[in-house]
Give the backbone structure.
Amino acid sequence: MSKPFEQLECWFVTGSQHLYGEATLRQVAEHAQHIAGYLDSNESIPVTIVYKPIVKTPEEIAQLCIDANAIKNCIGLITWMHTFSPAKMWIQGLKILQKPLLHLHTQFNREIPWNEIDMDFMNLNQSAHGDREFGFIMSRMRLERKVVTGFWQDDIVLKQLDTWMRAAAGWHDWQGAKFVRFGDNMRYVAVTEGDKVEAEMKFGYSVNTHGVGDLVKFVDAVEQDAIDTLCRHYADEYTLAASLKNNPALREAARIEIGLRRFLEAGNYKGFTTTFEDLHGLKQLPGLAVQRLMKDGYGFGAEGDWKTAALVRIMKTMAAGLPGGNSFMEDYTYHFAKSPGQPLVLGAHMLEICPSIANGKPNCELHPLGIGGKADPVRLVFNAGGGEALNASIIDMGNRFRLLVNTVNAVTPENELPKLPVARVLWEPYPDINTACTAWILAGGAHHTCFSQNLTAQHLEDLSLMAGMELVLIDKETKLRYFRNELRWNDASFR
């Protein structure tokens, strides 16, 4: 079975020194090759693992870091000190390294061979203190990195490696990525604004605006044959409402999708934003087109929200090959039921919820939209399934970006919601609706998020370390008194 990120590489780098002699170094290399080969062949590891010759001098280490920076498909280093590798040798290399680093604190043998252990064995298998030396220099240099401790064949270690590699793949995807805004931010809205220059410096992606007229040129150029083909595809893939059969609104939705897709492909964009306040030349607010493009991996944010568009994109990238989906989302309204455990959040948007999270076959429907002043837009309508999930949001705090995460339990709607013409999700936020929503507001969280059925808070924590970004987590353990203190401490730290 192919790996989700088979074209991407993590380099397995083992540190040692010449002190122990050639025989020991040969054993170190053999052991390192064996571990790297095991990881590369393990189906739970999502990227290609590349063994690199053991490094024993400052010059070898610096050159390896130079090479890692230069090789585009290298997304990070997995480092392990089999023996004692004096950490001053690593300073120059670590100073210039631009790729994420995971420190694997392990050893080749699972157990101590009680009857055979001697000083030769001890000199060879020194990671218990060799990795401490390596850990010190990164802490001394104030370098963010991931540390995973345990035997290299254990499932708990492999799971942590998988999580970190997925974050590294997402980080790699952001570098040089382009996002386009059609129109500007929704008027007077604060939280969807932000410093695009700082974001490009910090995260590696760029955001630029195109007038809607630039998109309209692509939409107007779509051929009738292409529209016919796509409309037949709609009828096959979705349950088409009777009102849409032979309805020109469906053809217009197809025209918008084809034109929008061609625009994104021509500009090599990985995501986009729209706003209902700037639709000049379009007959509908793009709904169906946005939903389908998101399912294909594009990031999206409504009302000019470029930060959420970039977040949706990276979370979709990180989750490649995992069951479930990721979608642009908005906390829309509350269900403050009196029964214990029953208060819920209804998540939805006007149109643009990704069908990757749908529970069953979506309906394709046509309904009026009370804002935007355009024709009734086509959209997919569905419920999302239940299960553990999370919401994540990136906000610009002025002196830093904050990644805010709330773990939730999504539930299947008990009611039909026959008059709600949008895709929707119901969830109970952890630890409870009162605490979670209060904490979200205290942290300045946005109303736009990325809703994920398949990523965990750990994926986003690993990403935050790579990005040097503040992470604030609201989960089952959150207590407001401590949460307030965490926000205060974070403010002091970043100041």
The first strand starts at residue 5 and ends at 15. Residues 83 and 124 are 6 Å apart (CA to CA).
